């Protein structure tokens, strides 16, 4: 996954206990994007998340995410550009069609948002690969909002935006000739550019070719993937004036994704740090078989737009993308990347809460964070667990979280923070049966 997941600091709740905790106060159906859907025992969508579904920041005129999308689209002018697919997908589409194993952690209700057992919010744009290949698109980009339950800090938000890109060729001599020609074109383009690339082998024992693929074809396709993305990195990061005459540095790293092999990640050296930019690989043949294009082969990549926009625009907090404050919005114009001018930073209000969880129940950090987000919205800046222990005699778990309330737009009073913290506490009691210490 492009965003590393936080380590699972707690054992997961046994399903029965956890669901009965969440079932408290659940409506029997939910209206999402104009349609009604029944809920069930796995429903974990919160009103704060539901409110995000229609917003589609990646298509808002002059929004940084929209500008970044159009910049990448203009780098691939002859690709189909898709950006209006619904975020509601089946778990089958999000995971099974892409060869995710049954026990993959991304499937857990603690990590993903479910409307019900058969419907969820997509966790990545790869969820649409089969559908788009099935439509007959050979080269395409798809931009969309994706949803993951996560911790709260300046770079994590439960909704973010990804862009998926893919290109497939006929898996025969004619198709491979096309790949070779494109490789020659891209090599020529990159040879003239101020870029240094650290590569890894296209295929290795730890990053193997797929059995059904001719290794030579796989090499050519992986080469095309790398050349194409090196050229994209040059478009995105190549212009940085602060580097002076120093070259752009890009490095390739072996990776693992259930739906590609070989697989790679790309990192770019920018302002003194290596930054992970995207995941990519040679598309698993199973994906293309399911999409009814078994005679094609090709590559795909997925990148997170917020991450790249935060770097390019120097935007310090991921919540800013959702800001409706004129001081934020009016700074940007379409098709232009400019440095964000921070307006004043307002004071933080830290509030701690310590509690015992009921016997046998473990509250996942993402459950805690969803409660806080639902109460405080974008007034919460980060949440940290500052203590956790198990009482040696009673075996009960005690947790302590520190919530940092801070508005990006205005000064917030201590009373306001107290008010939100009280609501957080009462929801923890009601929904999870915790005992405040
Ligand atoms: N879907 C992956 C994620 O969300 C990113 C990704 C990896 C996309 C490899 C791809 C790919 O298309 O080939 O982390």
From TrEMBL:
Pfam families registered for this protein in UniProt:
FDX-ACB (PF03147), tRNA-synt_2d (PF01409)
Gene Ontology cellular component list: mitochondrial matrix
A GO BP term here is: phenylalanyl-tRNA aminoacylation
List the coiled-coil residues. none
Principal place of residence:
mitochondrion
Q: Where is the Aminoacyl-transfer RNA synthetases class-II family profile domain?
A: 86-342
| Gene3D superfamilies per UniProt | Bira Bifunctional Protein, Domain 2 (3.30.930.10), Ferrodoxin-fold anticodon-binding domain (3.30.70.380)
For this UniProt record, give its keywords in alphabetical order, as a comma-separated list.
Answer: Aminoacyl-tRNA synthetase, ATP-binding, Ligase, Mitochondrion, Nucleotide-binding, Protein biosynthesis, Transit peptide
Reading the lineage from the top rank, the first entry is Eukaryota
Function in brief:
Is responsible for the charging of tRNA(Phe) with phenylalanine in mitochondrial translation.
What family is this protein classified in? Belongs to the class-II aminoacyl-tRNA synthetase family.
The protein in question is named Phenylalanine--tRNA ligase, mitochondrial
């Amino acid at each position: 996954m492009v965003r590393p997941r936080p380590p699972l600091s707690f054992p997961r709740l046994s399903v029965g206990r956890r669901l009965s905790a969440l079932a408290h106060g659940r409506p029997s159906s939910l209206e999402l994007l104009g349609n009604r859907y029944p809920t069930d025992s796995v429903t974990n969508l919160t009103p704060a998340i539901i409110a995000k579904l229609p917003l589609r920041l990646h298509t808002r005129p002059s929004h940084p995410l929209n500008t970044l999308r159009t910049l990448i689209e203009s780098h691939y002018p002859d690709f189909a550009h898709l950006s209006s697919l619904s975020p509601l997908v089946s778990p089958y589409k999000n995971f099974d069609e892409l060869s995710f194993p049954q026990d993959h952690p991304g499937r857990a209700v603690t990590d993903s948002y479910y409307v019900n057992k058969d419907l969820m919010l997509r966790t990545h744009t790869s969820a649409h690969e089969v559908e788009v290949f099935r439509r007959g698109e050979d080269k395409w980009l798809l931009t969309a909002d994706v949803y993951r339950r996560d911790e709260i800090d300046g770079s994590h938000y439960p909704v973010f935006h990804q862009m998926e890109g893919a290109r497939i060729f006929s898996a025969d001599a004619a198709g491979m000739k096309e790949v070779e020609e494109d490789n020659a074109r891209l090599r020529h383009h990159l040879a003239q550019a101020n870029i240094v690339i650290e590569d890894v082998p296209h295929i290795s024992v730890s990053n193997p070719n797929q059995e059904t693929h001719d290794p030579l074809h796989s090499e050519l396709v992986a080469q095309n993937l790398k050349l194409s993305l090196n050229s994209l990195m040059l478009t995105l990061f190549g212009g940085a004036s602060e580097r002076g005459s120093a070259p752009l540095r890009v490095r390739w790293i072996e990776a693992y994704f259930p739906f590609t092999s070989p697989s790679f990640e790309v990192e770019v050296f920018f302002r003194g740090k290596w930054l992970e930019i995207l995941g990519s690989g040679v598309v698993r043949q199973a994906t293309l078989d399911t999409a009814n294009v078994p005679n094609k082969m090709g590559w795909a990549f997925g990148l997170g737009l917020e991450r790249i926009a935060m770097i390019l625009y120097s935007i310090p907090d991921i919540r800013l993308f959702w800001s409706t404050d004129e001081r934020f919005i009016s700074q940007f114009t379409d098709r232009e990347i400019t440095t964000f001018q921070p307006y004043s930073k307002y004071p933080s209000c830290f509030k701690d809460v310590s509690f015992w969880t009921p016997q046998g129940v473990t509250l996942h950090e993402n459950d805690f964070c969803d409660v806080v987000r639902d109460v405080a919205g974008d007034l919460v800046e980060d949440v940290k667990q500052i203590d956790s222990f198990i009482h040696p005699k009673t075996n009960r778990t005690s947790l302590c979280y520190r919530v940092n309330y801070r508005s990006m737009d205005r000064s917030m009073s201590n009373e306001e923070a107290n008010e939100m913290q009280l609501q957080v506490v009462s929801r923890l009691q009601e929904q999870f049966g915790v005992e405040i210490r």
